[in-house]
Specification:
Layout lengths: L2 H13 L2 H7 L4 H15 L4 E3 L4 E3 L1 H28 L4 E7 L8 H11 L3 E7 L2 H10 L4 E5 L4 H4 L3 E16 L12 H5 L3 E3 L6 H10 L9 E4 L3 H9 L5 E4 L10 E5 L5 E9 L5 H26 L1
Parallel strand pairs: 3-4, 3-5, 7-8
Antiparallel strand pairs: 1-2, 5-11, 6-9, 6-10, 6-11
């Protein structure tokens, strides 16, 4: 018994007429009769009573008609589900993000993605860049939103990364510090202030990016604290422990006790979308990354309007 035979049988059982059933199936009547005969011999049960005037169902035929309808409906449902999955309309997506993405692209990207892929289960995980790189490589995450470049020694050739958003780096200082009131602060000036920094193992791209600010100086910054979250860094700054270099979007978090000062030369930091080179659900992942780009474009447009 195969699916084709079940479809043939259901057509005959519904029409109770081989000619009409053949028209419905877009085939000629003789092959249809042959297939029904094969089905009856295969299962060893007579399904139809035939006469020159009419076709009727046996008790076994009525039972098979009901079961076959359910089976065929289930099969069509599975086909629809698989087409939706292939087209990125269903399934699930596990996405990681750095906490600073909360204040830039993440709210808009979640809204856009859920409006376009309502049947896709979106699972979000706040993680550092290093944690996301590891989980994407392990297959636990489909996509990650990390900060700054993915180190080659960490990812090898297994990841694809693309820039989705760029913003300026700023220095956060206690509002009481003499440099809190300058128009911009130079790396040389920052060298003289204790610095709250971040672990490279968890934020490799960002730590390397901040390091380039001081690369041309003879002295290295004096790091007094190493923290994981920018909220923790801000707490140390507010307590007067030192300064910290953070993305400009941190302005949305700082209390009145902290001054945000642009860095000379306007160095920038970038959010990148990372994914496996061979994603398990390529269509859904591509949709999420498209939404990321659109969310970033909307932020840039709002910024231009505000500055006009």
């Amino acid at each position: 018994m195969d699916i084709r035979q079940l479809r043939y049988f259901v057509a005959v059982a519904d029409e109770l007429h081989f000619g009409r059933a053949a028209e419905r199936l877009h085939m000629s009547q003789p092959p249809l009769s042959v297939q029904i005969g094969h089905l009856e011999r295969e299962i060893g049960v007579k399904l139809l009573e035939r006469s020159t005037r009419q076709v009727t169902l046996t008790a076994a035929g009525r039972h098979l008609q009901q079961r076959a309808r359910v089976l065929l409906a289930d099969l069509e449902s599975v086909r629809t589900e698989m087409r939706d999955y292939a087209d990125g309309l269903s399934g699930e997506l596990a996405a990681g993000f750095v906490s600073s993405a909360n204040y830039t692209v993440l709210p808009d990207v979640v809204r856009l993605f859920r409006s376009r892929r309502a049947s896709v289960e979106l699972n979000l995980a706040p993680l550092t860049s290093g944690e996301q790189i590891s989980r994407v490589l392990q297959g636990d995450l489909d996509v990650g939103i990390v900060r700054d470049e993915v180190p080659a020694e960490t990812a090898g050739g297994s990841l694809v990364a693309e820039v989705v958003f760029e913003e300026r780096l700023v220095a956060c200082l206690p509002v009481s510090h003499p440099l809190a009131r300058v128009a911009e602060i130079t790396p040389a000036q920052l060298i003289g202030i204790p610095l709250i920094a971040y672990p490279r193992s968890l934020m490799p791209g960002y730590v390397d990016r901040v390091a380039t600010i001081f690369a041309d100086l003879d002295d290295a910054p004096r790091i007094v604290e190493v923290v994981v979250h920018q909220e923790t860094a801000l707490a140390f700054v507010a307590a007067g422990a030192g300064a910290s270099v953070l993305p400009e979007s941190v302005r949305q978090l700082v209390p009145p006790s902290i001054a945000v000062v642009p860095l000379a030369g306007s160095p920038t930091t970038r959010l990148l979308a990372i994914r496996p080179r061979r994603p398990r659900n390529a269509a859904v992942t591509a949709t999420f990354i498209t939404c990321l780009h659109e969310a970033a474009a909307a932020i840039r447009a709002r910024s231009l309007e505000a500055s006009a």
